[in-house]
């Protein structure tokens, strides 16, 4: 019997024993919650192992409030990305059980309340200007229950800083490399480790950087095998992918 079948049978039994109303059972079986402006995916955890993540940019405080109100009834973990201080203050005021990470621009369930994995992901950042993307990756992975070690400001212009940490980085099971400018750091790391590397180009750089397009093309053309490239400034995607790798290893 599958997990879904077991859940349905338990609900039917609860209705039969008058432990659950028909309306409550229908709510639990619903695949999504209709809010008019959004359809909240209630079965994301069953399909992908983690609840729906809220992309905060472009949403109003009222919309965010209604989405959080729905998700928090069904999930123990909440993650909102790309949210500014003003919106975050409004959300935290109503849901004080959440916390705000200003650099990452994330509102989430407190990271220190979430059990972490034995294996860790290395979050490697070229420069201080890339920190918002790096922290988005790191906090995303931590909210997903992944142990993280941060290696920041180790770009190729002072490559000895990377080498000082390379043995620790090699102990990780996946690396997320964040860099702007020409993005050379991801190729260097990929050539030094025996695990998957997720490379994230940032929009940090001077004019010819073209808001990260130059970095993106540089990373895509890397000659170092084992590196997969995400979209510009997509720290969330890097953290999420790293979490999937670690979870696969620990659940094997």
UniProtKB/TrEMBL annotation:
Residues 119-251 form the PurE domain. Pfam families: AIRC (PF00731). It comes from the Bacteria. Transmembrane segments: none annotated. GO terms for molecular function: hydrolase activity. Signal peptide: none annotated. InterPro entries: P2CMN_synthase_LarB (IPR039476), PurE_dom (IPR000031). GO terms for biological process: 'de novo' IMP biosynthetic process. PANTHER family: PHOSPHORIBOSYLAMINOIMIDAZOLE CARBOXYLASE-RELATED (PTHR43064), SLL1489 PROTEIN (PTHR43064:SF1). This is Nickel pincer cofactor biosynthesis protein LarB.
């Amino acid at each position: 019997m599958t997990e879904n079948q077991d859940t349905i049978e338990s609900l039917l039994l609860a209705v039969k024993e008058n432990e659950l109303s028909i309306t409550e059972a229908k709510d639990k079986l619903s695949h999504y919650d209709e809010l008019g402006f959004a359809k909240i995916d209630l079965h994301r955890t069953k399909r992908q192992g983690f609840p729906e993540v809220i992309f905060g940019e472009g949403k109003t405080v009222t919309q965010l409030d209604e989405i959080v109100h729905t998700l928090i009834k069904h999930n123990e973990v909440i993650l909102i990305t790309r949210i500014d201080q003003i919106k975050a203050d409004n959300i935290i005021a109503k849901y004080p059980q959440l916390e705000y990470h200003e650099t990452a621009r994330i509102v989430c369930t407190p990271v220190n309340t979430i059990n972490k994995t034995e294996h860790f992901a290395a979050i490697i950042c070229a420069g201080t200007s890339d920190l918002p993307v790096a922290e988005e990756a790191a906090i995303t992975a931590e909210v997903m229950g992944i142990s993280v070690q941060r290696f920041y400001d180790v770009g190729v212009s002072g490559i000895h800083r990377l080498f000082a940490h390379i043995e620790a980085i090699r102990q990780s099971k996946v690396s997320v490399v964040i860099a702007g400018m020409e993005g050379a750091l991801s190729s260097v790391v990929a050539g030094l480790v025996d695990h998957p590397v997720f490379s994230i180009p940032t929009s940090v750089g001077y004019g010819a950087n073209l808001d990260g397009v130059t970095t993106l093309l540089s990373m895509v053309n890397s000659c170092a095998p084992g590196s997969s490239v995400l979209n510009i400034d997509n720290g969330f995607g890097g953290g999420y992918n790293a979490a999937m790798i670690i979870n696969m290893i620990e659940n094997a």
